[in-house]
């Protein structure tokens, strides 16, 4: 497994990371035994970056990772944790809290649930509109000084917020959606991150499964699968997006690889400062994504991909309107 550094001041991690969200939340039921096996298989394959959130499954995801870590060498992996999202007992979303006191409260519970004495990268899941980013980052900086956290990360913020945060404390990476179907960061956010020496951990590289190459138009989603309200999975939008995937399949088949592998490899080849996160919930999907690390797209192939899925080609926004309203990254 190749490695990449998170930004100019961050840790060196595997060139691809594993996102654990789907093992606990938002994509319907998951098999816990298979989830644990998938985490172990990922680490065995050389993946060292494991991404979670304290609100994924209302703590379940961190507890799942704790169980996985019992059979792993903690120092082999870097744990990235998002915090700040508030959930109700029915799974509802109640807003965000990134006050300094809340930051220290959240990390206390995460450390206990994870069964570890430190978190490698700690980041607010969203910008709290009621709390200056300087205060939130300053609180994480205090946790770093105390030894509970190693690095500051951010998630879904715009270029201006990146600059304000970096003026307070070094930021190692910005976690943000980036894929062939979501290229909004290319105009302002990615250039600002590179200017500041901030890496990118890209989630949604398969666009919630659309770019996986296995999606069926008649697929029935589970009750709590958020794709049921995602604009890209609705009606004509879904038809148009799946047509894009079929066009991409022609490029993949010509190279002898899968659609998913091309999609992951494309993100990885946008810069050495980008680490794709794959959200595999099963070992078979993990194995397919890992195959992308062996894929090198030529200039001709990159041009062919650009022709079949140019920037802005996706039908529908990447989140529903109510969720987009919480994204500072969409305001830049």
From TrEMBL:
Keyword Oxidoreductase: yes
Superkingdom in the source lineage: Bacteria
Gene Ontology cellular component list: cytoplasm
Species of origin: Actinophytocola xanthii
Gene3D superfamilies: NADP-dependent oxidoreductase domain (3.20.20.100)
Keywords: Oxidoreductase
Protein name (record): Aldo/keto reductase
Domain called NADP-dependent oxidoreductase: residue spans: 15-308
Pfam families: Aldo_ket_red
Molecular function via GO: oxidoreductase activity
Keyword Transferase: no
UniProt-listed InterPro entries: Aldo-Keto_reductase, NAD(P)_OxRdtase_dom_sf, NADP_OxRdtase_dom
């Amino acid at each position: 497994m190749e490695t990449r550094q998170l930004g100019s001041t961050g840790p060196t991690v595997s060139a691809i990371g594993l996102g654990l969200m789907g093992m606990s939340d938002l994509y319907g039921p998951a098999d816990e035994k298979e989830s644990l096996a998938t985490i172990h298989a990922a680490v065995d394959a050389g993946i060292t970056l494991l991404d979670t959130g304290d609100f994924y499954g209302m703590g379940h995801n961190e507890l799942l990772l704790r169980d996985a870590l019992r059979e792993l060498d903690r120092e082999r992996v870097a744990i990235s944790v998002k915090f700040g999202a508030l959930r109700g007992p029915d799974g509802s979303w109640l807003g965000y809290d990134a006050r300094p006191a809340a930051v220290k409260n959240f990390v206390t519970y995460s450390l206990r649930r994870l069964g570890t004495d430190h978190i490698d990268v700690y980041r607010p899941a969203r910008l709290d509109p009621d709390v200056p980013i300087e205060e939130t980052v300053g609180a994480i900086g205090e946790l770093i000084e105390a030894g509970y956290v190693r690095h500051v990360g951010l998630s879904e913020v715009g270029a201006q917020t990146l600059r304000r945060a970096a003026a307070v404390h070094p930021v190692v990476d910005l976690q943000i959606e980036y894929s062939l179907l979501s290229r909004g960061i290319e105009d302002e956010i990615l250039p600002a991150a590179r200017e500041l020496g901030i890496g990118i951990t890209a989630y949604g590289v398969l666009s919630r499964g659309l770019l996986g190459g296995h999606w069926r138009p008649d697929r029935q989603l589970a009750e709590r699968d958020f794709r049921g309200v995602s604009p890209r999975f609705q009606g004509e939008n879904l038809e148009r997006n799946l047509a894009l995937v079929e066009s991409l399949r022609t490029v993949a088949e010509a190279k002898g690889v899968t659609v998913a592998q091309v999609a992951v490899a494309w993100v990885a080849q946008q810069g050495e400062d980008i680490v794709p996160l794959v959200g595999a919930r099963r070992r078979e999907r993990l194995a397919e994504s890992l195959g992308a690390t062996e894929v090198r797209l030529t200039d001709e192939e990159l041009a062919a991909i650009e022709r079949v899925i140019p920037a802005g080609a996706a039908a529908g926004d990447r989140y529903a309107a109510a969720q987009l309203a919480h994204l500072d990254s969409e305001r830049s």
